[in-house]
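Step 1: inspect the first sequence and its tokens.
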Amino acid sequence: MKAKQKKKKNKLIYKIIVSILFIASILFVIGLMCLNVLSIKWFMLVLGVLLIIDFLLWLFIIKSKKKKTSSFIAILFTLILSLGSFYIFKTNGLLTDVVSNYKTYNYSVLVLNDIGYTKIKELDNKVMGYLDNDSKEEKQSLEHIKNKITPDLKDYEDIEQMGNDLLTQNVDSILIEDSYLSMLKEENSKYETDCKVIYTFKVRVKIENLSKDVDVTKKAFSIYVSGIDTYGTVDSVSRSDVNIVMLVNPSTKQVLLISIPRDYYVQLHGTTGVKDKLTHAGIYGIDMSVKTLEDLLHTKINYYIKVNFTSVIDIVNSLGGVDIYSEYTFVSYSGYSFKAGMNKVDGEEALDFVRTRKAFADGDRQRGKNQQALIEALIRKATDKSIITKYNSLLSAIDGKYQTNMSIKKITALIKMQLNDMPKWNVTSYSLSGTDSSNYTYTYNQLLYVMEPDNESVEGAKSLINSVLRGNVLDSTYNNISDESNSVKKVNSNQTNNNLTPKQEVKQASKEIEKIEEEKNENDNLNNDDKIVDSKAETSKLEDDDQKKEQDEKESKVDDFENVINK
């Protein structure tokens, strides 16, 4: 009797195991259907393999004598399917999160340290200055303040005048967005030392629909890549230090990266009169940056993607680091040494690579090229078959780390195309150039450093854009690079906090470069004299007249750069 009961009980357990297996299989299939990244061919293959495994396990559990072994395998397979379903639904959730139609403004109430205000309520009936630009965010910020206190509001059209009135006690406080506050601090250290923030809040404003949808698997499209100069949440408005327009032609597998310097002196969309730095467009939201670049390049931008410092670090680390191409040997602003050629970098090193500009005679122009090199490295790593093994860490890294207006449908269509064909992409880089100058800006009515656009380079960008749109394949910028990667090392503590003047930083960086280059030549005798910043060991092999010519050119570049800094 007991044997029959035990047998009946075991039979019930086996049926439960089989039932749970079937449920896990169904959920996995539903998840794949919802994710929609597999082509019909691969989806049917997965479905067929799944049905065969389920049938065999059912058969062995119900019919064979090795029920315990079969049950153990079934439980293990159920766990694998459950884990797979978890990541599939997690992916769907992440794709939903990154598609955002809002921009966030971070406001602060600033007061003088000596006055003694510590709480927002103490400013009731006190004079509060604010920047009057008749925008949605301004109206919402004032409404927020009025719900807290009843201030005596004083409007300003000039941010510099508003700041000066706070320092001279003509107003008790100012209400200011953090992007403007950063600009004031850069121009006058008193805003850092003599003032304090006693209240902060956020204002969210909906962005108009900027997407211009196309079939991204068949037709060429463009993406504006914006990198803002902040850590933390990526939806905050801020100056855009990285401005790259990326053209993608899925038919020819051609990618064109056009870098526009942050200080490019352009007409902000919808404004008249005084022009502005391109980086300042980001203060008004990514929609302003997109429209301004459309005006500059005479092309439509289909989508945008926005990242910040945190994004770069986490995404690179999630990929297990990337191999990035450097045109020059140089020492970064934090003291990392990069060599001409390929360099293996982690997230922190990658961020340093794309932020450094003072180590180069071409300054921001070269920084733009380095930013393009990082994008190429990310494309190369993310489209490699090895990405499958880093799936979990990649999903965690991108969660909330970037913002885009490309729909889930478009993103999954691109993923499906890549997984189905696993193509290699041809990447070409191009940078707009200009001349160093100083001029008044629309955002900050003061003489600032700007870069006057070179019309010939702008026309060259337009020509390349049209070429990609027509289906032409361009020469790759990264075809003839070595597979061997250098290790990045730190050669000093921190160049940004050593109390050196910009001119001294340039000279110190040059000395570090000379030291690294000598070591490089001693170790591998590579001839990179056309790409490195300084190559004393290599020039010793040249004719005396060639050596003098090259040295004169180098000194001229450093002198030109020092002149720019002095401006």
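Step 2: inspect the second sequence and its tokens, then contrast the two.
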Amino acid sequence: MNKLIRRRQSTPSGALADSGLHPLLARVYSGRGIGAPDELELGLAHLISPEKLSNADGAARMLADALAEQKHILVVGDYDADGATSTALALSALRDFGAERVSYLVPNRFEYGYGLTREIVELAISRGKPDLIITVDNGISSIDGVAAAAEQGIATLITDHHLAGREIPAADVIVNPNQPGCQFPSKNLAGVGVIFYIMLALRAELRSRNWFESREEPNLGRLTDLVALGTVADVVPLDRNNRILVAAGLQRIRAGHARPGILALLEVASRPLHAVVAADLGFAVGPRINAAGRLDDISLGIECLMQEDQAGARSLAAELHQKNQDRRQIEQGMQEQALKLLDGLPLETEGLPVAMTLYRSDWHQGVIGILASRIKDRLHRPTIAFADGDQGEIKGSARSISGIHIRDILDAVATRHPGMILKFGGHAMAAGLSIPRDAYEDFSRAFVAEVERHAEDVHLQAVVESDGELAPGEFQLELASELRFAGPWGQHFPEPVFDGRFDIVHQRLVGEKHLKLVLSPEGGGQVIDAIAFNVDLAVWPDETVRQVELAYRLDVNEFRGNRSLQLMVEHLNPL
């Protein structure tokens, strides 16, 4: 599907223009809402105070009491990278603070589903009844689970970042920047960011109790590698507060001071430490941890993150790498099946539905989220992929586009059609749900109808946002390197993309489906290497095409010790 290349409006403020930044970098920052140089200061001293996070003080008092009495604390996590990093952070911090009885439990997605449920409380008790359950990256919708814990005399601390539903669980303490009444200035913390903030509050509480008179006070900065990984992998918006957290973690990783598990995962993904950026966490480390939760048990990922020696970490990283390879194979087969299901649709015309639902009984439940994301990217439509769940149910994973709040859509469907959705949860861009298998066709129609009600002002053609054209003198290796480390880049603070017309000097296929190009900017002069990954083989290579319109990123290609400029192609249109 062709994409529209749209240029951002960007006029740097006088303060930004006069700050000494390269003019191109000033333009890029301005296009992302940066108006003054001090907004680019990302030291941890600029973090929003934990005091502004509702109930963080109450959580700190609860945890300090539990530490003083050496209560049995159970961390209940989630089965994705944010949940894994949140769990690892909670365990590491609590143990560093002196907890002697702290363990974790993560629901297996295939047996128990998501969150703190009655079944998980029963399972926890069977393994040794805890005094306190802490949820990380989940819990705001765990009405029944919290009630079950209370019935057994177990206290609950909910730490989450997902949107709250109409009913809030009756937990002892809830910390969630997105719960009603919380005035925390950043609503974009990932689950790992929330639990990190609670540990900052706990440290302050323990200081006030003179807890560290007899023990060493831990440096919580060493946890920022986990915070960076979970934040980037969960694709939450990188507002300034999150960029501060991610920047601190990246700095630690590049210095080689990250925990052995993260270093081992970067190693197995062939990412050199000195050049690690946020994208490496999102596209190399995060997927390998997620693969454990998608195909088997996220505990493998948590154990890798908790490893204290490099040999053990490398062994677990190798297992995670293999699971990610297996996940890719499963996903590829499912994607081919999905595209066959779509063959009958006019995918290049105005007849394409405003939303897509796909279901096959043999699809892997752990991979439908990635499948939905791939189809959403290909068609630029909200997409839900379903696979068989419990008896009589199918489970769906939804992914959305800008302007369509997918959780609100599901909420509206549930309101209009009581009983059609058995359960659901999520946020603007991603959600999960369960429906009766025999309700699939009715749900599909209701889902499309609801999206139609909200899609009137939404651009249903995929758009590539560009930072404009580069001048001939801006195709520089040094500038590409400066842009690479000028982030951290990510959701809502995207890596710079430029556009322009180029003459094709040479083109060839590499690695079966990647297009290697040698280009010259329109008007001649410089010759530049470029690569476009996963091109449509029905279109490329095409020796009859002499000129292309590109959206691309300036990149540094490092190969056998040599560094050269390379364009990473985001989209290409033959001219």
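Step 3: confirm your contrast with the notes below.
The longest strand covers residues 498-510. DSSP finds 17 helices and 17 strands in the chain.
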